[in-house]
């Protein structure tokens, strides 16, 4: 499949994802695998974003039978509790790596104090949402992880 | 030396106001906000913005570590505290200095001295500033009972760390004292983490008149005239203010100005500050000194043509005031109405909700300081002030008529507001006559509520 077609397909998937109110959706076709994830990092633009871009209550995420097929229900966002500079812990994690329980991914340096960011259970990193040395604000998502038990 | 970047440690209309002053001076700005304030105009107007905590103020706008950290990572060289929150927190001013960030306000020592209302009164008495007869800190309700008998009823209980009408109780007779003492104490405890109370003799039908002062680090002190803030809610929070004070003899006016300047000199004051007085007949009593910019500062700016927030910033940067008393003259008359999200008919209870329609007035001599717009959700956590309408006229009558019309043009819907009450007051004979006392609004609001 050529690049333009792949991009068009990805756009379709993204639109479907938005309409259905899904946070994340993966589809594979022939030699192509597309995963679409809505970034919750764009918090600064949230207020100005059109309402349609957000899940309407009662759709997708909150299906009545509780089975949400396409959303990673166990995915959690590790957020900053403090305003400061995020510093990655070595070895630096990347998307896809598996982490043992308690592993520190990074710390937020705030007024000279290290505030560690850890996983509470064995997990896989599904997204790295910041870069090393970046200033971060309160509640800013730093990493997305899902448990691997 | 001038500042390059200022962090504004506040929210709402005052953060918008400070942002304007900084930008006009060519200084970059950093806003802070809580998770529920992301949509506020104070965030939109700033050059940078950092979320510092969740809705409750204790974890956001009072979160000193996160605020200082935001200042450091944004390389701000000064912090403007606005009013409320950390504005009169001496420890915060010290912490700013410890981190190499200038605090835009007076020295921590003066903040601390004036913040302790009983200590402030003692300092002012020593500087021959007239004060209301009263007591030191009261140890117990029994202690209060003895003091009240000595002073004679009615008396007023006040929080030593108080302000904004919190922890304050009027006591008409001995039968009400124990209850008033307990409730004022717990209110002071909750609001200021300091339950200490003192007592003063209640002054009969007083007017609240305050004097704006400016002092710099070179010992220059000027007054920027007085403001009459007698139109206060039952909680002693101001609703309508005007400058100059109407129906005040020139002798008393001059005396207030003189006393304010000597008081500011007595503490070597180095910022914008306000001395609040009670005026009853020919008697003038010092109440307290506020070591911050005040909500109602625009009316003084309007009649004197001085930008008080810019002056604060320049003074904190070590500059000279740049003008003296003989260059300051009052022109015309200014009035401010506070448009609050609250229900006057229900004891001014704060109202939360989403604003559905917002339209502000305009025209010659009309100023609006606000952070709101249609569609903005008003969170329940903070002060209920939505907008300040400030008008200036060549005379008091013109100012009142201008305000009446500005209020007619103003629309704020979606929450209960003080708009209708302000409209009614502009048309009220007693207000129009001028010189009402602090007892005016509680009775007027009660009558208006009863009539509807």
Number of self-contained structural domains of chain B: 3
CATH class designation of the largest domain in chain A: Mainly Beta
**Which stretches of chain A of 5+ consecutive residues score pLDDT under 50?**
40-71
The structure class of chain B reads: alpha+beta
Number of domains of chain A: 2
Q: Give the SSE order of chain A as H and E letters.
A: HEEHEEEEEEEE
Count of extended strands of chain A: 10
Question: Which percent range describes the beta-strand content of chain A?
Answer: 25-35%
Could you please describe the fold and organization of this structure?
The complex is a heterodimer of chains A (149) and B (452). Chain A has 149 residues and is α+β, with helices and mostly antiparallel strands. Helix content of chain A is 14%, strand content 34%. Chain A contains two helices and ten strands, in the order αββαββββββββ. A four-stranded antiparallel sheet of chain A has the order 3-10-8-5, with no helix packed on it. The longest helix of chain A has 17 residues, at 3-19. Chain A is elongated. Chain B is α+β, with helices and mostly antiparallel strands and 452 residues long. In chain B, the strands form six sheets. Chain B has an eight-stranded antiparallel sheet, with helices on both faces. A five-stranded parallel sheet of chain B has the order 3-2-1-4-5. In chain B, strands 7-6-8 form a three-stranded antiparallel sheet, with helices on one face. Classes of the chains: A alpha+beta (149), B alpha+beta (452). The interface between A and B is medium-sized, with 15 and 20 residues.
For this entry, give a set of tags.
heterodimer, A: 149 residues, alpha+beta, 2 domains, 34% strand, B: 452 residues, Rossmann fold, Dna Ligase, domain 1, D-amino Acid Aminotransferase, Chain A, domain 1, eight-stranded antiparallel beta sheet
């Amino acid at each position: 499949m050529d690049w333009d077609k792949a991009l068009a397909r990805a756009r379709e998937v993204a639109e479907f994802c938005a309409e259905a109110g899904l946070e994340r959706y993966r589809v594979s076709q022939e030699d192509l695998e597309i995963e679409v994830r809505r970034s919750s990092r764009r918090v600064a633009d949230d207020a100005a974003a059109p309402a349609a871009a957000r899940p309407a209550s009662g759709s997708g995420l909150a299906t009545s039978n509780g089975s949400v097929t396409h959303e990673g229900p166990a995915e959690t966002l590790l957020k900053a509790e403090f305003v400061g500079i995020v510093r990655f812990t070595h070895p630096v994690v990347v998307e896809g790596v598996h982490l043992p329980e308690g592993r520190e991914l990074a710390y937020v340096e705030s007024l000279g104090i290290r505030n560690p960011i850890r996983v509470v259970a064995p997990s896989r990193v599904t997204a790295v949402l910041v870069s090393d040395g970046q200033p971060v604000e309160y509640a800013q998502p730093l990493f997305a992880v899902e448990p691997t038990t | 030396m001038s500042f390059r970047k200022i962090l504004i440690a506040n929210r709402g209309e005052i953060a918008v106001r400070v942002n304007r002053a900084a930008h006009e001076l060519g200084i970059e700005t950093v806003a802070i906000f809580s998770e529920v304030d992301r949509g506020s105009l104070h965030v939109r107007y700033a050059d940078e913005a950092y979320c510092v905590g969740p809705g409750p103020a204790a974890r956001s706008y009072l979160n000193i570590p996160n605020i200082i950290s935001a200042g450091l990572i944004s390389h701000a060289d000064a912090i403007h505290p606005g009013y409320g929150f950390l504005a009169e927190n001496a420890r915060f001013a010290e912490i700013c200095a410890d981190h190499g960030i200038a605090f835009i306000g007076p020295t921590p020592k003066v903040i601390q001295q004036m913040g302790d209302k009983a200590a402030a009164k003692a300092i002012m008495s020593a500087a021959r500033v007239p004060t209301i007869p009263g007591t030191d800190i009261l140890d117990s309700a029994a202690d209060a009972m003895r003091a009240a008998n000595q002073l004679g009823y009615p008396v007023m209980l006040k929080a030593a760390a108080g302000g904004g009408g919190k922890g304050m109780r009027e006591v008409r007779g001995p039968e009400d004292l124990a209850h008033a003492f307990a409730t004022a104490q717990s209110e002071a405890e909750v609001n200021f983490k300091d339950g200490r109370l003192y007592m003063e003799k209640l002054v009969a039908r007083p007017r609240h008149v305050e004097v704006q002062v400016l002092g710099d680090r070179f010992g220059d002190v000027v007054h920027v005239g007085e403001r009459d803030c007698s139109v206060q809610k039952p909680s002693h929070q101001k609703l309508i203010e005007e400058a100059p004070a109407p129906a005040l003899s020139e002798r008393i006016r001059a005396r207030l100005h003189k006393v304010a300047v000597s008081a500011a000199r007595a503490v070597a004051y180095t910022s914008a500050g306000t001395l609040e007085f009670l005026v009853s007949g020919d008697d003038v009593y010092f109440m307290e000194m506020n070591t911050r910019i005040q909500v109602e500062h625009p009316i003084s700016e309007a009649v004197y043509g001085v930008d008080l927030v810019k002056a604060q910033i320049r003074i904190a940067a070590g500059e000279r005031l740049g003008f003296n008393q003989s260059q300051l003259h009052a022109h015309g008359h200014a009035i401010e109405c506070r448009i609050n999200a609250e229900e006057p008919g229900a004891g001014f209870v704060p109202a939360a909700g989403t604003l559905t329609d917002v339209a502000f007035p305009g025209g010659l001599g009309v100023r609006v300081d606000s952070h709101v717009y249609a569609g903005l959700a008003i969170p329940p956590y903070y002060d209920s002030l939505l907008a300040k309408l400030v008008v200036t006229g060549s005379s008091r009558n013109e100012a009142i008529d201008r305000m009446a019309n500005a209020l007619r043009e103003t629309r704020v819907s979606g929450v209960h507001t003080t708009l209708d009450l302000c409209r009614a007051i502009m048309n009220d004979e007693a207000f129009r006559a001028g010189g009402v006392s602090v007892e005016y609004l509680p009775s007027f609001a009660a009558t208006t509520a009863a009539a509807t």
